[in-house]
Amino acid sequence: MGEIVHTSRMRIDQQERPNRRVALEGFDEPILFGVHSNIAAFYGIEPKEQRPATLDHMIAAVGG
Question: What does the pLDDT average to over 32-54?
Fold first, then answer.
């Protein structure tokens, strides 16, 4: 196993569902997660504001 190159530190706060606010070490502004139209339709919810989902950020990070 290789050596650890970086460790991410974050705090996730649940806001009014489905919204979450993430404080990521090294960033001044929080990252806001929620749901967008495709996910909202799947779960049958109507968010007040559409936001990227957690999965969207994960896929972007892995995909580079």
Answer: 87
DSSP state at residue 15: -
Say if residues 18 and 35 touch (Cβ distance below 8 Å). Answer: yes
State which H helix or E strand residue 58 sits in. Answer: helix 54-63
* DSSP, res 25: T
* Domain boundaries along the sequence of the chain: 10-63
Q: Are 37 and 50 in contact (CB under 8 A)?
A: yes
Whether the CA torsion 61, 1, 12, 18 is positive or negative: it is positive
Report pTM: 0.66
